[in-house]
Amino acid sequence: MSKRRIEIMDTTLRDGEQTSGVSFSVSEKLTLAKLLLNELKVDRIEIASARVSEGELKAVQEITKWAAEKEYLDRVEILTFVDGGVSLAWMEKAGARVQNLLTKGSLNHLTHQLKKTPEEHFEDISKAIEQASKKGIKTNVYLEDWSNGMRNSKKYVFQYLDFLTQQPVERILLPDTLGVLTHTETFEFISEIVERYPNAHFDFHGHNDYDLGVANVMEALKAGCHGIHLTVNGMGERAGNAPMASVVAVINDFLPNLKIAVKESSLYKVSKLVSAFTGFGIPANKPIVGDNVFTQTAGIHADGDSKKNLYFNDLLPERFGRKRKYALGKTSGKANIQKNLQELGLKLNDDELKKVTQRIIELGDKKERVTKDDLPYIISDVLNSGDFNQKVFVKSYVLTHAKGLKPSTTVAVEIDGELHEANSHGDGQYDAFMNALRIIYKSKKRDFPKLTDYAVRIPPGSNSDALCETIISWDNNGTEFITRGLDSDQTVSAIKATEKMLNII
Ligand SMILES: CC(=O)SCCNC(=O)CCNC(=O)[C@H](O)C(C)(C)COP(=O)(O)OP(=O)(O)OC[C@H]1O[C@@H](n2cnc3c(N)ncnc32)[C@H](O)[C@@H]1OP(=O)(O)O
């Protein structure tokens, strides 16, 4: 059976820009327009509302200039108003050739906003279409508030559609302007319309106020609509529009009789760029494009993936130019660690793996986020912790820092099985800790090395804020050496480095 081709119209640059606080610059609009048509391969883009601003006019001029060279002008659309030709004059100046005329799809909006009768409105629309066509501009028509119109003034909607389907319009655009439809209603309303006007082209435009944007688009397609309007990352006014990435995956995986031109592998890239341009972060759990959606966190899941990809579904990350990850944290088992080690080309024996797993679980318990890039540092720290042959243990300490008082500490250290305790002050907490240690070592008439350098850093390559590394240089009667400590807490990492030093001297 041949598949039905669905048109995808991206309205990130028009409806998406109606996200509160979002405004694209001219060059951002041009970059995205090129990416959407050339790389993501959507069929059409709606790039602006007419009349908006000088900046918007400039952006549209840049896009239409480029689109004309590529012969894409019929794929670039402008939302226009029924305003006696003002929008059309703006469009002409902008070099655009397709208008999406905003008309009233509910009697409520028509009566209370435009304050016109249906007959007057149809007359104005007919003129707007005729004027456009004289200028070589093609017309699609939005029935604003159509979904409420179907609920509350169905007679008007069909009176209007009877008129509109006789007009020279390319497409009729059915918006759920306020995102109020349920999926069942969407199916019923679109089915009724498509059956009644089999020769017209209908687009569905879904909003996400009840988080039903994707479900409603799916039902509109099942009911036979010919095109859908989407935005990257679901940008748009209020709760936004139906999101591009999710809808594309739903069509490809659940609607086998339909086909679209959009390239799945470009979805992530476009999503990231839109997020960067708008400063509108992508929630980590947003399907397809969120940071976490291809990350297995539970040890059991990582184990199942190693056995027969038991925890995979059809949403394979590679489809979208992404990779599966295995999180490191308190719910990790050794399987998660193994997966990360494989990626880093590292191998550990069973005992080492157990120690590293334990350390990661401890960090997770402290609510720290550990990444793959932290692993080499954790491994080096755990495996070189000197717990074999360890003679000196920092058993406990209290560090205080209070405004107006010198930092102070009490330290208990076990040296060769004997416990020693000391109190001291210092310029900082670590300085106080070191002074207390010096007191203990002096009382035992033991040498205590000179600290010659002290550096703290986030381990290079580590993208998380889970770990901090302290590197301390020591001079023990002319013998110089370095020790390192790793912990999520800066002072604790310095104390760990110091404990290593105490076991070396
Ligand atoms: C589906 C959607 O999301 S619709 C979104 C459409 N896009 C936008 O509104 C963004 C761009 N809009 C704008 O820049 C401005 O609103 C403009 C330039 C269009 C108009 O600006 P203003 O003249 O200042 O009017 P304002 O913003 O208050 O809009 C209200 C006017 O639009 C009229 N209006 C509402 N719908 C339409 C329509 N489909 N066609 C023509 N006029 C309309 C209202 O009746 C009202 O007119 P009135 O002042 O004579 O009562």
Automatic annotation (TrEMBL):
Protein name: 2-isopropylmalate synthase
Biological process annotations from GO: L-leucine biosynthetic process
Gene Ontology MF terms: 2-isopropylmalate synthase activity
Keywords attached to this entry: Amino-acid biosynthesis, Branched-chain amino acid biosynthesis, Manganese, Transferase
Family per record: Belongs to the alpha-IPM synthase/homocitrate synthase family.
UniProt-listed Gene3D superfamilies: 1.10.238.260, 3.30.160.340, 3.30.160.740, Aldolase class I
Matching Pfam families: HCS_D2 (PF22617), HMGL-like (PF00682), LeuA_dimer (PF08502)
SMART domains xref list: LeuA_dimer
SUPFAM superfamilies the UniProt entry points to: 2-isopropylmalate synthase LeuA, allosteric (dimerisation) domain (SSF110921), Aldolase (SSF51569)
The Pyruvate carboxyltransferase domain, residue ranges: 6-268
Superkingdom to which the source organism belongs: Bacteria
Keyword Oxidoreductase: no
